[in-house]
Amino acid sequence: LATAERTLNALLARDPAAIRLARLAGQRLLLRLEHPELALAIHFHGGGLDLLRPDDPAEEAYDAVVEVDAATLGALLGGASMERLMFQGRLAVRGRVHLLAA
Prior knowledge:
This protein is an alpha+beta fold. The protein has four helices and five strands, in the order αββββααβα.
């Protein structure tokens, strides 16, 4: 995860639009990938984000929880509409949904 975290933060540092991430500082997102089964915690801070493998992925510790399969995650990262994926039942989000949109 350290390599992915460094790469993402380097890309974010070069993207002028990433300044919006500063508004997310202190927020925590739990991403649960269904196949393969994987839980990933994303912690936002002023300089980017931290990626962690949580020991106990209790939903109460996060501002938002996203459950998705690999194909849907690819579609979401590729620009597919979050609302459409949710309506189709391919994307489950609990908590502060606007965090995912941001």
